[in-house]
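Box S2. Input/output pair 1.
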Amino acid sequence: MIFDDFLRHRRREQIRPDDRAALEASVGDVRDLGARITLVRKGEPVQFSTYLIEGLICRYMDDREGQRQLVAVHVAGDFVDLHAYPLKHLDHDVSTLTACKIATVPHRNLDILMSQRPALAKLLWFSTLLDAAMHREWIFRLGRLDAVARVGHFFCEIEAKLRAVGLSDGARFDLAMTQNDLGEACGITPVHLNRMLRVLKERGLLQMQGRRVEILDHRGLMQLSEFDPSYLFIDE
């Protein structure tokens, strides 16, 4: 089922079979996309919301010189741009980071779910509130943590999200992000990012080889990064 990951760890209550069937039926189409494909551009009208089935998608903003700052990284099970349902357009761009499989839900179908399915309306509202919680944590990370803690915090967050959908065993996972991508998520240059990865490895906390990430000391990495996973609201 398309929404298995969305429903597994991101709900406060049980979803009835008829509500689940209605959510599945709301999908307009399912598509495979390549890496680095722009899905939504800032300011453009949006008539559907995107659900990520496989891969990684980012939301980002550019400064006047074209330098990119990632403001979110989405994994399988995330509704990427529910914000555009009431807002009608976004104040940022949305792009695939890797090859992805997505499902699109037309906003006219969301109208029906919101008016006729209160349990689903609550769930979708929860999803947008969860995004707001993660944005607040990203502001804290970028504004208050030093570079090595920012990097550690990002890896703690992405590991927790991947573990929630069965893509991490709690210590090891694949992450197909370049050092440019990681630097843009942490607000540092790729060169500085490389140095911070070396520091984390030397401290016995984390190592990254290619796309393979291994957290060597989870408790130590969380302590260094001031990471508290409660803002992710993941049902264990």
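Box S3. Input/output pair 2.
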Amino acid sequence: MWAIFKREIKAYFLSSIGYIFLSVFYLFSGYFFYATSIMAGRADLKYVFSNLLVILIFLLPMLTMKLMSEDKKLKTDQLLLTSPVNLFSVVFGKFLAALTTLFFGVLIMFVFAGVLCFLATSFDWIIFLCNVLGLLLLGSALISIGIFISSLTENQVISVISSCAVILLLFFIDGISATINMNFISKALSSLSIIRPYNEFTYGLFSLPNIVLFFSFTIVFLFLTARVLEKKRWAS
């Protein structure tokens, strides 16, 4: 797992993907910080975190687009499939590399928090840390979805577009469920919402069910990705 993790981390920063991701993340988070905290005179980062949600919908698929599809395209996946390794550990190593890259982006939030702590008379670190936790949990769920979709195709463009489409569907699922008259279907769809739980984190609401929801999304899609690889192993 750690060998896969190190390989993928190096791949991010030996290519332009890691730098582009962090540059765009820092650019938008800096703008949101300036507009919603500094200019608005707010001593919190709630709106920075909530606005970043829209950016991550389109930015995270860039991190996951090649994690599986490139191996498939270059046929390097055959080495993994024919070697006696645990496929879930392979998937988890790739997942950790993407999540670590996201964490590098999230670190800028601690700089913003330090600035507000210096400028404002009070700063609620508990709410801030709750926001950070929510962003990382949401990111882990979206990354796992992107990795699963990447395992289904060798085309990175298709991987990005499909990941964005699925994430956008989850983004609008609350609105979709509200239009369905059948109560049990509406509740079932609503339970898949990742936006409402994330918004609760931005208000500083630490909820164990929300944490379980994000963990469930992550584990399920990583498990499905491992099963896709397992199927290819038996077919090869």
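Caption for Box S3: Residues 2-235 form one domain. The mean pLDDT is 86.
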